[in-house]
Amino acid sequence: MSVGWSWAGAAVGVAMLAGLSLIGAGLPWRRRATLEQRLAPYLRDAPMPSRLLGSGPSTLTIFGLGDLLAPYLRSLGAGFERVLGGGPSVVRRQLRAGRGADLERFRAEQVLWATGGAALGLLGSGVLAVSKRSFSVPMLVLLTVIGVAVGAVLRDYSLSRAARRREQRMLAEFPTVAELLALAVSAGEGATGALERVCRLSDGELADELRRCLADARAGANLPTALQGLADRTGLPSLSRFVDGIVVAVERGTPLADVLRAQAQDVREDGRRVLMEQGGKREIVMMVPVVFLILPVTVLFAIYPGLSFLRFEL
User: Which of 105, 128, 228, 304 is the most exposed place for a label (fewest CB within 10 A)?
Assistant: First the structure.
């Protein structure tokens, strides 16, 4: 059997499998109303006066087919959650990355990345089949599974990387923000007024988090509780100490300006220490080409004339 007929048979089989899956998903017993859908009409107080007050459209819009694909993406995302787990860790990293805690959306995006990996696996198996002029079903399955796993892992890694980058930007902004707060407090303003002034004059990730704290405080929470939410969302030790210092100063009346200046100096010292550690590591990495490439070539150039002379003498 030629490679072309093998690919045609594989395409027909995939199409039949997709059709049978859609038929199975559309069976009546698969479309039963959930408990929430059955209780919703009895728990709603009054009909909504406008459609604008209802829930917004589905956020899983893919090429304009969000309403069609969203249920399948949600079900596949729930399957990913059951297999992989780690929902609380994903939510914490979403908060650290400055995004809303939406585990369902993340799992749907992970499904899309896994689908892209599966497509790349299929493409790789096709290239191998054309190059070797033979079609291997185990290789097709293996590359597809590897593509799915790699896609899911890459989406998780991208979220962790976004969280780390945002935290690094916040640490870079922290000393300046802390000193601005110290200047505002030294000028006679209170903790809330100093935060409002700094948020109005500055911009960045840390300023956005402080604005969120002020919004929580205006919504009814006291300032220490709102700042504690900042420490819980970020998870950085420096910001946790910063929040603890402000909370203690607000509750006990201790001098806040000196605490903020000391914390800014501590963060600068930590940054300097991290830069020294990174410089030491980079220095060791720079020794690799010197030792394994430049030094052998230098020794070869130094020894080769003598060896050639000895060979001529012999």
Answer: 304
Alpha-carbon distance 107 to 152, whole Å?
9
Q: Hey, how many other C-beta atoms are within 10 angstroms of the C-beta on 183?
A: 16
User: How far apart are alpha carbons 78 and 104 in whole angstroms?
Assistant: 8
Average pLDDT along the chain, 314 residues, taken 10 residues at a time: 62 78 71 73 58 47 55 69 75 81 81 86 80 76 86 88 87 83 81 82 84 82 79 78 78 74 79 81 81 82 75 58
* Identity of the residue numbered 262: A
Cβ proximity of 143 and 125 under 8 Å: yes
Q: Residue 51 has what DSSP assignment? A: G
For 305, residues 6+ apart whose C-beta sits below 8 A from its C-beta are none
Q: What is the model's pTM?
A: 0.66
**Beta carbons within 10 angstroms of residue 143's beta carbon:** 22
* Closest by Cα among 190, 165, 174, 161 to 257: 190
- Domain architecture of the chain: domains with CATH: 169-272 (1.20.81)
Residue 135 CA: distances (Å) to CA of 2, 4, 27, 306:
9, 10, 35, 58
CA distance 192 to 221: 13
